[in-house]
Specification:
The protein has 3 helices and 3 strands; from the N terminus they run ααβββα. With 150 residues, the chain is mostly helical.
Length: 150
C-alpha cells in the first residue's frame, strides 16, 4: 500500500516578516542601481570614451594620410583641415572633428620628424591625469612614444 507523503510549505506567519524582507530587498536594489547608474551601464561617459577612441584612431589615419601626401607630419591638427602646401590633398578631416565629445580640442604635440607625435584627449575634467571618468585617452600611434619615455 503506498504511503501518503505530505509536503509542508513554510509560509510567513506574520505580515510584518514579508514587509521587512521586501524593504531589505528594495534597499539592496536601490544601492545597486545607484552604483550602476553613476559608473556603469547607465553612465553617459562610456559612449563618450568609445567615441573619443574612434576619433583618435580617425585622427591617426588623417595624420598618416597627410604625411604620405606632404612627406611631413603636420605641425598642428588644423593643417588637416586646410593648408597652403602644394602637395596637400586634403581636407583629411572635418574641423568639427578636431574636438572631443566634451567640447575640448584634441591635444597634439609634434615631437619632430624622427619621433613623431603625441595625440590625446584630457577627458571630462580637461586636466592631465585622472581616474575612472576623468582619465586621459591616448591615440594608438602615440603609445610607442609613451614607451620611449616621452
Amino acid at each position: 500500500m503506498p504511503k501518503n507523503i505530505t509536503y509542508t510549505i513554510k509560509t510567513f506567519e506574520k505580515p510584518m516578516e514579508i514587509g521587512v524582507v521586501f524593504i531589505i530587498l528594495l534597499i539592496i536594489f536601490l544601492v545597486t542601481l545607484n552604483n550602476i547608474s553613476s559608473h556603469g551601464i547607465f553612465s553617459d561617459q562610456k559612449p563618450r570614451f568609445k567615441i573619443t577612441k574612434i576619433m583618435l584612431s580617425k585622427l591617426d589615419w588623417s595624420i598618416k594620410e597627410y604625411r604620405q601626401d606632404t612627406g611631413a607630419y603636420p605641425y598642428a591638427l588644423s593643417q588637416l583641415v586646410s593648408s597652403n602646401s602644394d602637395s596637400w590633398m586634403g581636407p583629411y578631416i572635418k574641423e568639427k572633428e578636431l574636438k572631443d565629445p566634451w567640447g575640448q580640442p584634441y591635444k597634439y604635440l609634434f615631437m619632430g620628424k624622427s619621433i613623431g607625435y603625441f595625440l590625446f584627449s584630457l577627458g571630462e575634467d580637461n586636466a592631465i591625469g585622472g581616474n575612472k571618468s576623468n582619465h586621459d585617452l591616448t591615440s594608438e600611434a602615440s603609445l610607442p612614444l609613451l614607451r620611449l619615455g616621452y
